[in-house]
Every structure is written in structure tokens, then in C-alpha cells.
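Input (structure):
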């Protein structure tokens, strides 16, 4: 699963949107355009971070000409807004969910800003509670996943710092479907994330 760090827009001299791209994990992005005047803008709408300074702010003007055909280091300094965004991103399975077979349930829960390589919830602790129901048995955690406290069909994961928890590999559950499972039976995984109010 790839992360999308930021969306960048490129406008021509008449303020027409002519191209957009995602930056890579290391923040690098590129546009291939002929000579002319352009404005590069970073999209922070609906995200937990904002520009850190007024210049370049969310956009930066540049001119490409024959003497300067490649322009590099058009960067944007970003900082976290007050607060943070913690919750459940998704739950998905890999492997066949059939009677007597094992499969993996991957849970992406924690700081949503880690999806963009930011850590706006640094220092915030909490817990992720997973409740499993239906004809299935929890076997173990995937290698590299955090160890839970188990109480019946509930798993409790204490998170010391959501800012350091990797959303992409934090919780991987090895499950086995019961041999008595029937077509139409439901296996449910309920995830609740709690943390102190901010």
C-alpha cells in the first residue's frame, strides 16, 4: 500500500490548472512543462497540516526558460494544525476466509496523519480495542505487530505514543475460521480507538 504524501497542482500564467501529481515518500515530485510562467500549489485542504510560513505559503511562482530549463527545490514548509486526527482507517483480510483455513486481518488504526508521513499526535497515548465475533479463532499476531492484552474475544493494544505508531503495520491478526462455519456466517471485527480528550 503506497502512501500519498501531498498533492501538488501546477497552474499556467493564466491561472489554469494544467497538471497535478502526488509527491513520493521522500517528498520529491515533478512536472514536465515547456518554458513559461507557472505557479506550484500544495493542497492542504481537509488535512491536519498547514504552511509554516507566509512565503512560499501554499503556492510558489516560477519561470522556466531556456537559460533555466530545470527548476528544483520548490519546497513547502508544513506544520501540524492544533489537535490531531486519530481513528480507524481500514480493516482488510488476506488469504481465503473458508472453514478450517487461516487468514490475516490487517487493521490500520492510529494517527491518520502518518498516512502523509506526518506525526501530529506525538505524545498522545491511548488504546485500540479489537472485538472479534463469529465462527473464527484468534491465533496470534503477525510478526512485527504489537502484542495485545487478551480478554475472551477482545484484544487491547496500549499505545504509548500514537505519533510513533506506524499506521501501515501496527496490527496484523492471524485468524482461523472454524471448521463448522457455514455459508452466510459473519465474521465481525470491531475496532475502537480511545485517547484522552484534547
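Output (sequence):
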Amino acid at each position: 500500500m503506497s502512501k500519498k504524501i501531498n498533492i501538488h497542482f501546477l497552474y499556467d500564467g493564466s491561472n489554469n490548472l494544467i497538471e497535478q501529481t502526488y509527491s513520493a515518500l521522500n517528498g520529491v515530485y515533478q512536472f514536465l512543462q515547456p518554458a513559461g510562467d507557472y505557479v506550484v500549489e500544495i493542497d492542504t485542504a481537509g488535512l491536519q497540516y498547514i504552511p509554516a510560513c507566509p512565503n512560499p505559503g501554499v503556492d510558489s511562482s516560477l519561470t522556466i526558460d531556456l537559460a533555466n530549463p530545470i527548476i528544483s527545490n520548490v519546497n513547502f514548509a508544513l506544520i501540524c494544525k492544533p489537535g490531531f486526527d486519530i481513528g480507524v482507517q481500514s480493516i482488510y483480510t488476506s488469504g481465503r476466509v473458508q472453514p478450517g483455513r487461516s487468514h490475516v486481518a490487517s487493521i490500520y488504526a492510529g494517527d491518520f496523519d502518518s498516512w502523509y508521513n506526518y506525526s501530529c499526535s506525538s505524545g498522545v497515548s491511548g488504546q485500540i480495542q479489537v472485538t472479534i465475533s463469529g465462527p473464527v479463532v484468534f491465533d496470534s499476531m503477525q510478526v512485527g505487530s504489537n502484542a495485545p492484552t487478551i480478554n475472551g474475544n477482545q484484544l487491547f493494544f496500549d499505545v504509548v505514543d500514537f505519533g510513533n505508531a506506524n499506521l501501515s503495520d501496527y496490527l496484523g491478526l492471524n485468524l482461523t475460521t472454524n471448521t463448522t462455519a457455514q455459508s452466510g456466517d459473519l465474521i465481525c471485527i470491531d475496532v475502537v480507538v480511545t485517547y484522552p480528550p484534547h
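Notes: DSSP finds no helices and 14 strands in the chain. The chain has two domains: 7-80, 86-194.
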